[in-house]
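Forum: Protein Structure Q&A
Topic: Joint prediction for protein chains with partners

I've read a bunch of threads here and the consensus seems to be that you should model interacting components together rather than docking separate models afterwards. I'd like to see that in practice. Below is the full input, 142 residues plus whatever partners are listed. Could one of the regulars post the assembled result?
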Amino acid sequence: MKKKLTLCLAVLVCSAVEAEDVRQLAPLPAAAAESLRDQMRANLLTLNEIISLTVSGKLAEAGVLAEQELGNTAMGKNRKLPFEARPGPHMPPAMHAIAMDGHKAASAFALIAATGDREKTLDSLPTLTTSCVSCHFAYRIR
Ligand code: HEC
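Posted by a regular:
Agreed with the consensus. Here's the joint model:
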């Protein structure tokens, strides 16, 4: 019994150490945080659609979606929002740079998909998630 309890405590302590959050806090105004979350859910949906379209050989559609929803074309979307609701300008510059890299990567993917080369398009799919992972690993907003 005592051995079991010690083991349980050890596991608890270890998981507490592991769970330490080392991401940098980037506080955003409430409205900006809300639009960020909305856009993030849309990003995930778009990503899933792009992967499905690519795998099923609908490369042109995958490319258009990548450009419109994730690429440089998608960047201007927030400009019509009130300043407080725009996530970009409130991000630390390094975080914002990751977001810009994500837009660039999606536009580059769109160009590759537009060539109709299935092999190359499949090969470049992982470039779409690099910025998602980099940012989520480095930053939190709460
Ligand atoms: C520049 C930074 C950055 C990039 C790039 C980024 N995210 Fe996020 N994302 C965040 C932050 C910060 C949160 C946490 C929001 C919170 O704490 O509620 C988040 C949250 C999310 C959520 C949860 C939304 C919710 O309702 O809580 C999803 C899903 C998500 N991101 C998907 C993605 C995908 C997919 C990509 C890439 C296509 C991506 N993100 C790229 C910063 C980023």
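Residues 30-140 form a domain with the Four Helix Bundle (Hemerythrin (Met), subunit A) fold (CATH 1.20.120).
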